[in-house]
Amino acid sequence: MNLSKLNITRIVVVVFFFAIAVSIASATIGREIYGATKVSLLSFGIINFSGYLFFLIMPVELAFIYYLHSHLSLFLLNIIAIVTALGAQLIDYCIGRWLSASFIDKLVGRHRYEKAEEEIRAYGNIAIFLFNLLPLSSPIILLAAGMLKHPIRQAIFYSLLGLVAKYLFISIIFF
User: Considering only CA atoms, which of 158, 27, 170 is closest in space to residue 89?
Assistant: First the structure.
């Protein structure tokens, strides 16, 4: 099996970010599940923020459902979910806007962000809204929006609409 230098670099980057994701989950929700500490808005905020960064893959919707069944305020939980998600997506957008395509290609892979670019070019703000409403890769779509220099106000506004709808829907169904 002949691995190119690029493939080895990708594997190392993926393993590194996977280790970060596991560490974050273990230090927050893992401790809470095993009873060492009580659930908190801070731990949820850390997990949710991390999960919306394009280079970390975390099941933020499942974490939200887990935290819904705690003693935390439903209103505050929704606010924290939306604010941390928007903050991370703003970072994703800025990374896409400021970093070179070749660097992002090495980090994420050309196919993933090209697919997101196609969605934005074809559907624009509707794609941003739907990717945030559904459990799809909304961080990648914001990264692509930044790369395409999509208007930031529109990207954030439609992200906000999708996130509000998603978290309200999850709250209604699972609370």
Answer: 158
Question: pLDDT tens across 99-128, in order?
Answer: 766 676 666 667 766 777 777 778 889 989
pLDDT top residue among 74 and 105: 74
CA 142 to chain CA centroid, nearest Å: 9
Q: Which amino acid is at 122?
A: A
Q: Where are the alpha helices (DSSP H) in the chain?
A: 5-25, 31-33, 41-51, 60-68, 74-98, 101-108, 110-123, 125-133, 138-147, 152-174
Report d(CA 138, CA 119) in Å as an integer. 11
Q: Which residue has the tokens 């409403």?
A: 133
Instruction: Compute the distance between CA of residue 158 and CA of residue 145 in angstroms, rounded to an integer.
Output: 12
Q: Is 0.85 surpassed by the pTM of this model?
A: no
pLDDT in tens, 90-101: 998 998 888 766
User: How many angstroms separate the CA atoms of 6 and 18, rounded?
Assistant: 18
